[in-house]
Design a protein that fits this description.
With about 120 residues, this protein is an all-beta fold. About 0% of the residues lie in helices and about 50% in strands. The mean pLDDT is about 95.
Length: about 120
Amino acid sequence: QVQLVESGGGLVQAGGSLRLSCAASGRTFSTYAMGWFRQAPGKERELGATISSDGSTNYANSVKGRFTIYRDYAKNMVYLQMNSLKPEDTAVYYCAAGVNIATLQSGYWGQGTQVTVSS
């Protein structure tokens, strides 16, 4: 069982930065793949970034070059550093954990944190 708690969302102006944090419980955190998803009002949930158990990362084209996902194995934390934010980044951001990248969406989820980017 894995429990995830996100934090770090808020209101920021376009061009600004935010860092989201995801605190994970469970002794097997290091073996899980992790990801950040987001869902904007009226839109489907979309994948933002993933990081595998070995630290390999992958990004959606919409965030590539602006967002960085990384994890701290000692602290059971996953982060999403978001730079050069745009109004279209406004969404609820969710942290997810799964046995591997392919099973992220059927794994564990946090409650979400709101990110609002003003123009």
